[in-house]
Design goal:
The structure holds two protein chains of two kinds.
Chain A (H helix, E strand, L loop, with lengths): L6 H15 L1 H31 L8 H15 L1 H17 L3 H16 L2 E4 L5 E4 L10 H20 L11 H8 L1 H17 L4 H16 L2 H16 L4 H4 L1 H19 L15 H6 L9 H8 L4 H15 L4 H6 L6 H23 L17 H9 L3 H36 L1
Antiparallel strand pairs in A: 1-2
Helix pairs in contact in A: 2-3, 2-4, 4-5, 4-6, 5-6, 5-8, 6-8, 9-12, 10-17, 14-15, 14-19, 17-19, 18-19
Chain B lengths: L1 E7 L4 H15 L4 E7 L3 H4 L5 E4 L7 H10 L5 E2 L2 H6 L2 H9 L2
Parallel strand pairs in B: 1-2, 1-3, 3-4
Helix pairs in contact in B: 1-5
Amino acid sequence: MAVEKKWHEKFIVDPLNKFANLRIIKSISGGIASGVNILLIGSILSIISILMSFIPGLKETEFSVKFFALKELVFGIVGVFFAYSIGAANAKYNKIDKQSVGFFAVIVYYIFMRPEFVINENGITLFQAEFSKFGTNGIFVSLVSGLWAGEITNFFKKHGWVMKSEGLPEIIQTWFDYLIAGTVVTLSAWAFTDLLNVDLFTIFSTILIPIIDIFSSFWGTLLLAASGPLLFYFGIHPLSVLYPVFAVYIAAAAHNADLLARGLAPTLANGFIINNYGTLLMINLGGAGSTLGLNIALLFSKSETHRKLGRLAILPGILNINEPLIFGLPIIFNPAFFIPYVIVPIINQAIAYFVLFFGWVRIPASLALSMHIPSVINAYILTEDYRAIFLVLILITLDALIWVPFLKTHARQQLIQETQKSN
Amino acid sequence: MTNILLVCQGGMSSSFLVKKIHEAFTKNQEEIQIISKASMEIVDYIDWADIILVSPSVLYAMDEIMEVCQEYGIIPILIPLELYGRMDGDAIRKLIVNS
């Protein structure tokens, strides 16, 4: 199939695919995607703690306090896992041992943390570092740790700078193989932090503030809301390109969670960021492009094909997976659906922004950031505010109504095509 | 027994499709094992797999997927958009059988 490339392939699809294929981008995407899965455990704990809050009198008990501490702990140490998963993902793309690289990444992360060893009055050595450094706050340090460990190890492996260990059992060989690289990874990270006296956590938290400000601004987020569907429309899976951007929003979510843990109410006046990853997930109604409304409109369409696809896609759709619609309707490369597919998420985003801005719904401030929990439930988990559920339901209804006229035209065209074919 | 590996971006959308494909084979009294994974995990499962199906959502990584598969002498099958979208297990089964 030697088809001449269209303009959009040459100027949009190809460069973006190249970008998505960069090893660093792939490592970040793959690493964050599997790291976020760890947040699922925290999400389950969040759900349990929400359920517990409905039981009167339980909140003040010791049990409840202990349980809350567990939740904080699980969310609080995610940064270390991100370092591991990004290192492991990088190793996978370099086709080297991912466990070794993952371990190195964790060592590097701990070195970057610059812990102090303090001997207490009983002579016991304590490991001292700010607890927030272990968590999602450090997501960019996790990125650096993972890539640091992965790329240095890869460099040594590819140049054959390894210990020769022929004749030894394979397991020991793997360790010897990575001994030199691992030592260099560790020493270089130490020299960078302790000899050059660089505190990555402070650097990132300083440069991140303006970056978060730009990305999480009203217009910045609208741009992101539009870019997901735009990418998918041109056949590029949004998650292959957008994860590095999501990292900024995840950091914004961590900022909110920190403030909430200090006992502040999630309002704009208290410094909470409206557009954080939680907000994005809350209005990620059915997947990139918020297609749940479309899915519901399909269920009620007059066209048999529409209804069939609607039924097929609804279960994945509820779990925010919309490939069946993107490829099945199809939306991808289909001019008939370009406008609603791009407009709907922009409208959702704008409405949600103002609703949160005026404080009609609490600003999401949770770290229970799971993409595949049904939106209606996720809205409550993220905000702990029942009004968020209404917001989601209203948006889905609105989205469905926007899609109806476009579906009608599409159904009519299909009917004409089918009759032409049968004639 | 034939082992089939289906990959997509995150291994999520494909997890819905594996059931349909498995059903299609069972209907024809053919026994297969099929699992879905993220495309980055191919290297971990390629030893196990006899056939590799690729979702159109990871078209961007096709060159690399080809490269990995070639090392193991497997020719990956790219599932056409419409079949993937309709989650058409029967048609995909035919695609596999005919290749």
